[in-house]
Structure formats: C-alpha cells, structure tokens
C-alpha cells in the first residue's frame, strides 16, 4: 500500500508498513533526520512534528494515519534569501540568540512545539510552560527556552 | 527570570555572548548525531544482557526458527583481551562465565534486518546458576578507601565543645541525556573506525586498542559525532559500546555495524550517579565556631570499580564544605554491590557530600539556636585559611558577599519571616564550592596538549579532543583563540574531534574544558600571534606551515601527595550560593520548587549566555535529583527505565531561576576562568531540603524528597 503525504511542502510517498511510526518513515525513508528519537513512547517530545496543524509525537503516529496529511518538520522552517543566505524562523533565531539550544537533540522537537504555540497560543491556556511540557530538555532547565520564546513572540512570525 | 551577566569592555570576544557556533545546524536539524549517520550496508547490532544480578552462565541456547547462520554472533571468547580499560582493567566487555550485575552484556548479535534482530534477541535463552547478591552498602567488600587527616580531632571533640552528629543519604540519579548511547564501526584492514556519541574520544581509543590488542595507535580511529548530552554519562560508558560495535564488525568481516541503544536499554544498563550515605560528627563552640569534623562518606560503587575511586576522592575532598575546620578526620569508602556500576555524573561525588554538610549545618544551627546563615558566616573560608588537605586558600572567596547578594535578590528574610515553620512554604539556603579540573596530580598525569594550525585560506584551526556536548566548547574556544590571536572570530575553525587527527587535550569532564584546556588554547594562540608577528594569517601560512602547541604544566607550588592525601587538591575553586523557595501541597504533599536563586563565582565569564545556560541547567538537574528523580532498583535491576516513570523536570515544573555572577579571576585558567559545569549541581539539593525542613518542620536527611516520605 502506497501512502502519500506532503512534508514541508513536498510530495512524498512510501511503501512502508502502515503501522510503521511516522518518525521512522521521516528518518529512514525520507532521510529527514532532523526529527529525533528520544524515547519511542511519546514521552520526551524529541520527535515532535506538526501534522495538519496539530502537534504530534511522530514516534506514536502509525504512518497510515499520516496518509494525505500536511507535515511540517524542523527542516522546513528556515528560508533561503535571494542572496543565498539562510534566514532562520523567528523561533530558531531567538533560540540561537538566547541559548535555547545546547546539545541540540531535543531542539528540533522543542522548536516545532514553540512554532505551534506561537500560531495557536489559545491551545495552551496555561501559557508557555504548558505548551512546552511535552518536550523534555535535560540541558537548559528551560529558562533560556522561555526567554527565547518570549523574544520570538515579540519578533512575530512571518507565516 | 533575571540574568545579569557582567561585561568586559576591554576585550573583543571574551566576556561577550558570541552566538553558539554550531547553533544554526542544531536548530535546523542539519547536525548529524550518530543515529542520523547513514552507512550503506550497515548491520544492526543488539546486546543480549544478563537477567540475574549474581551467579554464573551455564548455557546459551539459540532456539530453532531463526536463520542463525545469517547472524553475526560474538561472545567473550571472540575478544582478544576481554577488558574495558579504565583506571583498572577489571571490568570485562562481555560476561564469560561470572555474572556480577543485571543487564551485563553477555552476547552480541547483528543482522542486516533490524526487525529480525529484535525478535532474535528476545528468543535467545540463557541458563544461569544464581547466587544471592549484595544490594546494600556496607555489606560486601570495600572497593576503595581513602582518608584525610588534619589537626587534632580528639581535642576538638573533648571538653566544652558541642558535639552533633547526623546521617544523610542521596539516591542514584540517571543522566537522561536525550540522545541514547550509540556507535557505528567498521574495519579497514587492520584499522577500526568508530563514529559515536561520547565525551572522551581518547578514552574510547585506549579501551578499543587494549581490547583488540592492537599494536599501533593509528589502528583505532575514534570520531566524535554531534553528541546529544552527556553530563558524565558519556565519559567512561561509551568505551563499552565501542568495543562491542567494533567486535561485531570484526566478526562480520569488517562490515559496518550500528549499535544504537533504545531508551529502556540505555537506562537499565548504563552508569548512574553513586548513591551515598554520609555520617557527620561536628564539634563547635556554643557560639557556633567550628572546631572539628569527622566524616565517613560511603558510596555504592556497583559491580565494578570503573571511576569510583576518583568519585570517592572528589566527594571526600568536598565533604567539609567551604568552611574552616581546624581539625578534620575524613574517611571515604566505596562499596561493592551487585548493581550496575555507578559512574561519572556532573559533580562527581561532590553533590552527594555537599548535600550532607549543608543539611547538617542547618540542623546544627537549630540545636545551637543560631540563624543558619549566621552559623555559616562565622566559619566561611577566607584567604589564608587552611583546608583539611593543608592547601592554603589563596584567593578571598568573599562568601559573605555572595550570600548577601543571594539574600537580597531572593528577599529571603522577609519571605522566611512571613512563612513560619510548618506553614508549607519555605526558603532554604546552601553554600558550596567546586574544585576545577582533575584532582591532585590528575592534570599532570593527563599532560594535555592543544594545537592551533594556520591555514592558507586565512583561517586558524583549533585541534583538541575536548568535545562539544552542549556546553559550548566550540564557541568558547573560538572566543579564546580569536582573543589570544587578535584576529576575527570568523577566521577560527574547530576541527571535529578525531583521535590521531587532533592531539589529546584530555577528557571532557571535571569542569576542566573552558578553564584548563581553554587556558592551553589561550597559550597556543599567544604563541602563534608571536609567530605571525603582525603578518596576515593567509600570507604567513602560505610561506611556512604555522602551528602552535601548548602542553599543560602545573603552576608553581601545585603539589599533591597521593599517599598522604595532602597538598593542593585543585588549582582553583569556584564558589556559589543557592536559595530555594518551595511550596508544598497541603493535601498531597507534592513539592514544588517555585524559584531558585544562584550566585556564582566561576572566575572570568567567557560567554555570559552559555555560562548562564550551564548553571541554569545544573540547577534544574539538582532540583530534579532532590525532588522527583528516583531510581528504583530491585535486586540491582532498575524498575523505572522509561521517561514515563523516571521523572525529570519538565517545562511545567522546572523552577524559575535567577542567576548572577561575581568574578574572582583565576590566575591559571583561560582569561581568568574557573570551572563552571559541575558547580551548579552542588547546591540545589541542600537548599531545597533546608526549605522543605522549614516548610514541614520535618527532619529531612535524604533525597529525593518524596511526598510519601513527607506524609509518613
């Protein structure tokens, strides 16, 4: 069975087993290794991606559920300017400036959760702390991530 | 969240928050971690582990139904030298017959089909003869003991002095680096190439070379890939993973093999922070002036020695806290148990013993009827004081000033007064210190080397084995090199650590990278600046090969006697004070650390954003260890090997943090820097426990502080 989906605006199709986690399809079939494995059971958030405007843990999504879906991963956030320079998404830029990324392994998932929160602040009534609570970070103690998110909220999101 | 980094206007890069050099790669998903590395035709490896804690292997059975002839299978007999070389070589890489702990590696299998490997691994049957194990300290043999003697303790504990004693315990702690351990290896003729997640490429190199009895250094190439967190957990443990991967590959005729752990395997078998029991007896005057201390510091070493002797050493050396003790009798004992070996974890023994002394002092202050802060003030180390190892304190730590700042920022007194003892709300304080770099003669023994090499494209390359594991090595070294060379930071490059290609600048541990290795980078940069003599880098590099090397030399007067445990244990000390504000749920006793304050003296702050990142991260780990991180072991087997049931702080429960630095420069560290990575782990547990003791009126003497303990 061929499963088709759109990832970062590009069409992909896979013949993977329908129960294969989306995470494995992203990493192995699509070679989009920005999305990380951390625990394999939806607890750490390292594999977080946006699917049809919802935040999901891709290790918990059987790929058949992603059929026809629009998926956004960390690879799709930055843009390339006319002069060839990379322009980071405001969340990425703020993480860079505020020290929101240390070892970097939770970062792609954390950034996706951050981007989703800026788009839909109403979905986390408890605010930033609630919006990011599904994403474990062992390096920062979260404070620098909060500062980055506050900065990103001010600089806005060009989407 | 307030952060007030100091500023250095006279320097171009040092003291400035230069953005993380590899940051954009990490933020866009381009950074390549070991699991991201695609190697065509690689086999998937899997480790078969013991399911008893003590005994012997009687038989290994491969049930029918699997194409075993297609598998690569190795046992201890396939390894030329069945050892993981570290301080001693007593730990085998694979169990031959004797089982010493649960989850010990016994057999390795590999196949090109990852799914088949999982199924086959589950099917293999091991038959054991089981022995009763030892699972508590003080029941088995002593793996290592140490003693420090200073002054006349008999006299201190006699006469009118107030004698007070207590026992304090800390639990194991799992690192929970979000990237599990992993290596990919292959053989090119008689050379093994290893890519992996690790802190110390040359530790891996030494262990692999020894295990395969290789003659030449260039027969082992260890390449560090982007490493997703370490915290000590990837100091010694990766050597084991590397040997296993290399062995499977060799048996498979040199084919590449991937051996990457999943979360549960990593948590079940890898090292953790040593559990501890500290017994303290102190003597002081009625007014609270310290006269003497007796400490017995016990740690659980687990089933093999690994790095326990040095953990014991650092823990014991810090066990008196930053106070003046005219007499001290300190004994450290590391015990054998049939638990998986405990290992390096940020702080390396000091967080355990400093928790004990800082809790003890709050309890003592109650007995004396003196404010705990005033009791500490009467006894703070000052310039010219003598440590129990006879080392003279050469700088003035100005702990009074550090504590004053913490009290002021946290509004400690007003908050403490408005929440009486037992009110469910409390403030707690701790004062602590941490020695920079390897203990005693360790740095002399390491004899670290760094190199800088000018390139014809006008760049200068930093060559070190010190790894970037999230703490900012690449960025900080680039700042130091550019400053020392007087060139633009864009001209500095960082060579990916690979044994053979970079000199051995020692392991990435012990709060030594920025200060000690950075100091060598500074020295090499200044040498190269002289060689450049005003010339442009590209122009000079085109004329002749331009290289500068610096090797560690101990500063004059830094002498250590390993036999007597006397001398200068560390070349510099970092200092700090934490205040914790906690609230307890009146029904469930759920403990919430609302806010923490940290004032730190880490010498020159090379990069404020990165330094704040280090201390905030350490504070959160310390708070986690004190409150929610509970390694549950049953007969030496960890029961909660998932992030679902081993709980680390999340964004919802991590405390708000306020951090400030005071700077007392270290004459020997890079631009006056001292150790930063481990210091922030030392203070939070006692500050939180002191706050909980106040909030509940209970005598808290162990961590983690669980609601069920408070409700007892």
Primary descriptors:
heterodimer; A: 159 residues; alpha+beta; Ubiquitin-like (UB roll); DNA polymerase, domain 1; 2 domains; 5-stranded mixed β-sheet; 7 strands; 16% strand; globular; B: 712 residues; Aldehyde Oxidoreductase, domain 4; 27% helix; 24% strand; disordered N terminus
Write a structural description.
The complex is a heterodimer of chains A (159) and B (712). By secondary structure, chain A is α+β, with helices and mostly antiparallel strands. Chain A contains 5 helices and 7 strands. In chain A, the strands form 2 sheets. Chain A has a 5-stranded mixed β-sheet with strand order 2-1-5-3-4, sandwiched between helices. In chain A, helix 2 crosses helix 5 (143-155). Chain A is globular and about 45 Å long. The model of chain A has no long low-confidence stretch (mean pLDDT 96). Chain B folds into 3 domains: 41-52 and 54-132 and 176-269, Aldehyde oxidase/xanthine dehydrogenase, molybdopterin binding domain (Aldehyde Oxidoreductase, domain 4, 2-Layer Sandwich); 276-440 and 566-711, Aldehyde oxidase/xanthine dehydrogenase, molybdopterin binding domain (Aldehyde Oxidoreductase, domain 4, 2-Layer Sandwich); 442-551, Aldehyde Oxidoreductase, domain 4. Chain B is 27% helix and 24% strand. Chain B has 19 helices and 29 strands. In chain B, the strands form 7 sheets. Chain B has a 7-stranded mixed β-sheet, sandwiched between helices. In chain B, strands 8-16-15-14-9-29 form a 6-stranded mixed β-sheet. Chain B is globular, with a radius of gyration of 26 Å. The model of chain B is unreliable at 1-7 (pLDDT under 50). The chains are: A alpha+beta (159), B alpha+beta (712). Chains A and B meet through helix 2, helix 3, helix 4 and helix 5 of A and helix 1 and helix 16 of B.
């Amino acid at each position: 069975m061929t499963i088709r989906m759109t990832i970062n605006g590009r069409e992909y199709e896979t013949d993977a087993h329908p129960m294969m986690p989306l995470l494995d399809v992203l990493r192995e079939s699509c070679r989009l290794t920005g999305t990380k494995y951390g625990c394999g059971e939806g607890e750490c958030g390292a594999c977080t991606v946006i699917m049809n405007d919802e935040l999901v843990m891709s290790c918990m999504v059987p790929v058949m559920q992603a059929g026809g879906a629009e998926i956004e991963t960390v690879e799709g956030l930055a843009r390339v300017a006319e002069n060839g320079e990379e322009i980071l998404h405001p969340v990425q830029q703020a993480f860079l400036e505020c020290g929101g990324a240390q070892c970097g392994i939770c970062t792609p998932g954390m950034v996706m959760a951050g981007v989703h929160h800026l788009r839909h602040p109403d979905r986390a009534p408890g605010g930033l702390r609630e919006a990011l609570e599904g994403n474990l970070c062992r390096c920062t103690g979260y404070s620098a991530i909060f500062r980055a998110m506050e900065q990103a909220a001010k600089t806005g999101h060009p989407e | 969240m307030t952060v007030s980094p100091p500023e250095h206007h006279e320097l171009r890069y040092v003291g400035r928050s230069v953005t993380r050099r590899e940051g954009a790669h990490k933020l866009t998903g381009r950074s390549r971690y070991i699991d991201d590395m695609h190697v065509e035709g690689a086999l998937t490896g899997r480790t078969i582990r013991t399911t008893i804690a003590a005994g012997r292997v009687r038989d290994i059975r491969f049930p029918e139904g699997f194409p075993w002839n297609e598998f690569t299978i190795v046992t201890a007999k396939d390894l030329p030298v069945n050892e993981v070389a570290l301080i001693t070589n007593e730990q085998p890489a694979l169990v031959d017959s004797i089982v010493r702990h649960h989850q010990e590696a016994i057999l390795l299998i590999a196949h090109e089909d990852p799914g088949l490997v999982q199924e086959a691994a589950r099917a293999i049957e091991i038959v054991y003869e089981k022995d009763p194990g030892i699972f508590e300290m003080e029941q088995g043999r002593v793996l290592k003991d140490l003693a420090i003697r200073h002054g006349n303790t008999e006299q201190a504990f006699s006469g009118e002095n107030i004698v007070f004693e207590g026992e304090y315990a800390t639990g194991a702690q799992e690192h929970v680096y979000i990237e599990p351990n992993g290596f990919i290896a292959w053989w090119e003729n008689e050379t093994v190439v290893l890519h992996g997640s690790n802190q110390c490429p040359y530790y891996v190199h030494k262990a692999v070379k020894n295990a395969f009895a290789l003659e030449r250094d260039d027969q082992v190439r260890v390449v560090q890939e982007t490493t997703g967190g370490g915290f000590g957990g990837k100091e010694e443990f990766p050597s084991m993973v590397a040997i296993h991967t290399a062995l499977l590959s060799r048996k498979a005729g040199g084919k590449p093999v991937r051996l990457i752990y999943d979360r549960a395997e990593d948590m079940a078998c890898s090292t953790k922070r040593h559990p501890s029991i500290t017994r303290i007896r102190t003597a002081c005057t009625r007014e609270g002036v310290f006269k003497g201390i007796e400490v017995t510091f016990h740690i659980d070493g687990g089933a093999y020695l690994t790095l326990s002797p040095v953990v014991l050493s650092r823990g014991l050396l810090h066990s008196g806290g930053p106070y003046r003790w005219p007499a001290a009798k300190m004994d450290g004992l590391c015990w054998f148990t049939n638990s998986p070996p405990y290992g390096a974890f940020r702080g390396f023994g000091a967080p355990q013993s400093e928790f004990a002394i800082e809790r003890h002092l709050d309890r003592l202050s109650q007995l004396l009827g003196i404010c705990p802060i005033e009791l500490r003030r009467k006894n703070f180390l000052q310039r010219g004081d003598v440590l129990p190892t006879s080392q003279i304190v050469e700088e003035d730590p100005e702990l009074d000033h550090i504590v004053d700042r913490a009290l002021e920022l946290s509004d400690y007194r007003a908050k403490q007064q408005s929440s009486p003892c037992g009110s469910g709300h409390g403030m707690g304080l701790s004062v602590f210190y941490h020695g920079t770099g390897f203990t005693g003669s360790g740095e002399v023994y390491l004899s670290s080397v760094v190199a800088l090499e000018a390139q014809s494209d006008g760049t200068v390359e930093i060559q070190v084995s010190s790894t970037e594991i999230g703490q900012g090595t690449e960025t900080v070294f680039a700042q130091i090199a550019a400053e020392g060379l007087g060139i633009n930071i864009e001209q500095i490059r960082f060579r990916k650590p690979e044994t053979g290609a970079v000199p051995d600048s020692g392991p990435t541990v012990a709060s030594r990278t920025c200060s000690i290795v950075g100091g060598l980078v500074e020295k090499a940069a200044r040498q190269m600046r002289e060689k450049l003599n005003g010339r442009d880098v590209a122009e000079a590099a085109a004329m002749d090969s331009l290289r500068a090397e610096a090797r560690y030399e101990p500063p004059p007067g830094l002498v250590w006697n390993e036999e007597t445990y006397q001398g200068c244990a560390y070349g510099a000390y970092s200092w700090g004070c934490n205040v914790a504000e906690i609230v307890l749920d009146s029904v469930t006793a759920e403990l919430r650390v609302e806010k923490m304050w940290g004032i730190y003296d880490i010498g020159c702050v090379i990069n404020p954003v990165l330094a704040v990142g280090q201390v905030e991260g350490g504070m959160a780990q310390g708070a986690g260890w004190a409150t929610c991180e509970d390694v549950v072991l049953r007969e030496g087997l960890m029961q909660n090997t998932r992030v679902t049931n081993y709980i680390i702080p999340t964004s919802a429960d991590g405390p708000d943090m306020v951090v400030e630095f005071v700077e007392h420069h270290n004459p020997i560290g890079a631009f006056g820097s001292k150790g930063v990575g481990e210091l922030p782990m030392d203070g939070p547990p006692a500050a939180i426990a002191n706050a909980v003791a106040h909030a509940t009126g209970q005598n808290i003497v162990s961590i983690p502080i669980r609601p069920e303990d408070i409700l007892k």
